[in-house]
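Appendix B, record 7
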Amino acid sequence: MDLLEYQVKEWFGNIGIPVLPSQRIDHPTDLKRLKIRYPVVLKSQVYAGERIHAGGVRIVETTIDAIAAAQTIFNLPIWGELPEVLLAETKYDSKQEFYLAVVLDTAVCRPVLLGCKEANIDWESAGEKLQYVVVEQEFSPFYARRLALKMGLQGALMQSVSSVVEKMYELFIQKDLDLVEINPLAVNAANEVMALNGKVSINERAIGRHPELAELAAKISHRHSSQKNHSKLKDLNGGDTQGKIGILGNGAGSIMATFDLVASLGGKPSHPLNLRHGLLTDTSPTSFGDRLNKGLNLLAADKSIQVILINLLGSIPQAEAAAQVIAKFIQDYQSQNRRESHIPHLVVRLAGSELNVAQDLLAGVENQGELVLVEDLDEAVAQAVRLAKPVTYQRVKVK
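Structure tokens (predicted):
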């Protein structure tokens, strides 16, 4: 989950990373009460990249020009996304620009400091230009200075850049982040540094540990929703596709494999939901059963989904509880008026010795004809595709 630039700048300012005077603009008329001096840079606050090339960034020198530019930017979709707010920021003249980042390297399971004496670098051709330092032990200013030295900086500039890197690392640890990036870090004629743009990626597994992150996640989730149910489906890390077969699973690999198999058999997969991790908007720890229950009800609420294919492979926590969730989901449906309620067919594939308990429990439900229980994934996919196909009726000639 990424933050918008104005949110990133607030975090930067709070932790001591130098940022320009700025103001959030919710409506073009807010520019009549602008508290920063012209010339001002107006920036569209969208998650899509390349906004500057799409016209999402304008430099204005008067209130009249600023309001006209803001009206244009508010109505300018960038990669299909319209901004809810703009960022008005003081214009800054730089003589040099750097790239800095702190990122979690999953290969070495350690934070890595990145730096380059060029901004907006091309990662594929960065090569020796991009310097890095792995934080192998408890962090100290030594790591930040080492990066600055590897970048070829000296004197006061080396000190100011390494100081920014220290603050970036402090923010990275404080918020359990995946990435803190400044691109560019500008240097003016007086060798003063300024974070002109930044990016922060939140580790979604850390949201439950930080109430302020949960609040931000809820706002972002709400903003992205064009439909309430579709928003919740996206929160489950599911792809938003149009199809008739919803997929639930306990791992990204098995989810992708199931999705591909459904498509290869001519089925139309939709909303592959990974239940391994909590939802984006969850503010407290959840069990696997909680997530399974929520996934079932979200998919069932989507009238376009005709089949829910559940693929649980290997060991899952609370196998018996997961089976009870599926059984209760069916029982709840049975207690409703079937003419008024919508429930997709359920095809459940369970594989793995630790799922025997769940298999035994669901076998009783299967006998009631409400679900199909299988061990083989190919068979499960074939059943799901078959059940999702429209029923054809032969026309009967009336004599």
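Remarks on this record: The longest helix spans residues 155-174. The chain has eleven helices and 15 strands.
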